[in-house]
Specification:
Blueprint lengths: L5 H47 L8 H10 L1 H24 L5 H11 L1 H6 L1 H40 L3
Helix pairs in contact: 1-3, 1-4, 1-6, 2-3
Length: 162
């Protein structure tokens, strides 16, 4: 019976841990992409709504709601915006569990740096993890900027006269 050497077992364990971290980084990226997509949908719905409803009447929700009940497109847009908003929050909450992901990767990489550098497979998995994680951070930054822009736009719209 041939048994695996301790080094082979260790490489296998590190590979499994790296694959799990890479999979989590993909989920992290997808949650941020989902959130960004929902925010873009909300902005698009807002821009279309501004084209449908006169600008001076957008300040009153009751008018918008009454118009929406008689205007099928406006009602559909309002429902799409509400669903996109809810999905965006769901993506944000699901992304919270990945807050410690970078620390886990750093610890694993620091503990097994020589092994990861020596193995092309481990190095490729680690590089792919880093690409996915960096993309998730980029998408998160863009989503945050879009969210702040939307909030600022709504604030300015409410403050400034029509």
């Amino acid at each position: 019976m041939i048994s695996a050497t301790p080094l082979t077992k260790n490489i296998s364990i590190v590979q499994q841990q790296l694959l799990e971290l890479r999979q989590q980084s993909v989920r992290h990226k997808n949650a941020n992409l989902g959130q960004l997509t929902c925010l873009i949908v909300i902005v698009s719905v807002g821009l279309i709504t501004v084209r449908i409803v006169p600008a001076n009447q957008l300040k009153t929700w009751s008018f918008l709601w009454r118009q929406g009940q008689s205007h099928v497109l406006l009602m559909s847009l309002m429902l799409i915006a509400i669903m996109a908003f809810a999905i965006s929050w769901w993506c944000w909450f699901s992304d919270l569990k990945y807050r410690s992901l970078e620390a886990q990767f750093t610890e694993l990489h620091d503990n097994h740096a020589e092994m990861i550098k020596a193995s092309p497979t481990l190095a490729a998995i680690a590089a792919d993890y880093q690409r996915q994680f960096d993309l998730a951070i980029l998408l998160n930054g863009i989503a945050t900027a879009v969210a702040f822009a939307v909030i600022a736009g709504i604030g300015l719209r409410l403050i400034l006269p029509a």
